[in-house]
């Protein structure tokens, strides 16, 4: 692997391989010394043009646990707010000797541009680009599902036969997109549920089934229910009448929570709008994997940084 | 290319039995012993040593703390010069390694760099009372000041030759051969 831009095109063996490396990385957190010397002397730059708490912190921790040197740039308080272009920022980072750039940007495709432009020779990790993809989130979601299913015997396993229902703002969700491709590669089947206004207009090329009724989807007794955040910052039009109606039709409220099997996983990528897409009781219930997802995020990002930064650098295709 | 078999199945078993006796002798019994194999074949050898130690002295079985594995991938000094390696799991005894005598077990001792990485890895897991090294084959050509405490067979080789250790559990056959 040279870059991690998308989960589309990752085959099953590669995906299982990444999750297996993350298993070994998770063991590090249980040790006396929670640090590996593996990426000593490598420089990782976190380039965040959009607000983020957990992804940025998670990448920071992952890089530090692997002994890489880490610098975080956020758009606020950097030259970007003075009008510097992505190209100039990239070339500046290249001149400083970055080995990896973790980029989050509001424009879909920003990470691809950085990887293919030739402005910078570093490994590029997409930490969320617009409404396009968020690959490490999908990897940590898959890791969390596998861990709940198989526990300590997770190594080498895929997600064959698992039925995952993703509910909410599919249209604007990079988390949903990355999950769709990765879950398909791992053998799980995905159902998307959203108001018609929040589904992409053409889903014919996606390996999913979809519907508009959350209650109908719950009748199928899914193994995983993944709630997505209602992203006010990307809503340029009125996609649903008001928040209360959305919560009533597509929110995971207490009543719907009680209809789930005891072993159904309730997932949410965070940050949660409690009371809107997920009730407080659902978020805090034993079915909820929200905090496991955060903890597993560090292991996944360690695995990805290790796989991209160790080994001989592959030439660009 | 010629392949010469230097150790056969019975030779390997004999070497491991002798090493087991030497471990017990130097440790004055089996108390506070931890055997840690270095993946992949070192783990198999550590498990076999553990079984032989138990069969020599059943009392050792109870005091023999555990047989585990120690992955050194993340501590290697050649990560940048080779294709990316997939790490293997590290399994340590639940009681930890603090204050124990750890015997590292590997199949071939060559440059000593793997053992250097293993010593660094061990230090991040705890503080053993002592660390010993057992290898099935010592082929020379050390690049670091490291030596083995227990050696199955010393095999003087040239750097151009390859040593192949094949074990029943992984390879289906059991032998050590030199390829030149």
Can you lay out the helices and strands and say which pair or pack?
The complex is a heterodimer of chains A (317) and B (180).
Chain A: H1 12-28, E1 43-48, H2 54-65, E2 69-74, H3 86-95, E3 100-105, H4 110-116, E4 123-129, H5 135-150, E5 163-167, H6 174-186, E6 189-193, E7 208-211, H7 214-219, E8 224-227, H8 243-250, H9 254-259, E9 265-267, H10 280-284, H11 290-309
Parallel strand pairs in A: 1-2, 1-3, 3-4, 5-6, 5-8, 6-7, 8-9
Chain B: E1 3-8, H1 9-27, E2 33-37, H2 41-56, H3 58-63, E3 66-69, E4 101-109, H4 113-125, E5 130-138, E6 150-154, E7 162-166, H5 168-171, E8 175-179
Parallel strand pairs in B: 2-3, 2-4, 4-5, 5-6
Antiparallel strand pairs in B: 1-8, 7-8
Describe the structure.
- The complex is a heterodimer of chains A (317) and B (180).
- Chain A is of the alpha/beta class and 317 residues long.
- Chain A folds into two domains: 12-133 and 294-316, Aspartate/ornithine carbamoyltransferase (Rossmann fold); 135-290, Rossmann fold.
- Chain A has eleven helices and nine strands.
- Chain A has helices at 12-28, 54-65, 86-95, 110-116, 135-150, 174-186, 214-219, 243-250, 254-259, 280-284, 290-309; strands at residues 43-48, 69-74, 100-105, 123-129, 163-167, 189-193, 208-211, 224-227, 265-267.
- In chain A, helix 1 (12-28) packs across helix 11 (290-309), helix 2 crosses helix 11 and helix 5 (135-150) crosses helix 6 (174-186).
- The longest helix of chain A has 20 residues, at 290-309.
- The termini of chain A are close together.
- With 180 residues, chain B is α/β, with parallel strands linked by helices.
- Chain B has a single domain (10-76, 88-159), classed as 3-Layer(aba) Sandwich (Rossmann fold).
- Helix content of chain B is 32%, strand content 27%.
- Chain B contains five helices and eight strands; from the N terminus they run E-H-E-H-H-E-E-H-E-E-E-H-E.
- Chain B has helices at 9-27, 41-56, 58-63, 113-125, 168-171; strands at residues 3-8, 33-37, 66-69, 101-109, 130-138, 150-154, 162-166, 175-179.
- Chain B has a five-stranded parallel β-sheet, sandwiched between helices. Chain B has a three-stranded antiparallel β-sheet with strand order 1-8-7.
- Chain B is globular and about 50 Å long.
- The mean pLDDT of chain B is 92.
- The A-B interface holds A 1, 17, 20-21, 23-24, 27, 31-33, 35-38, 155, 306-307, 310-312 and B 71, 74-75, 79-90, 120, 123-126.
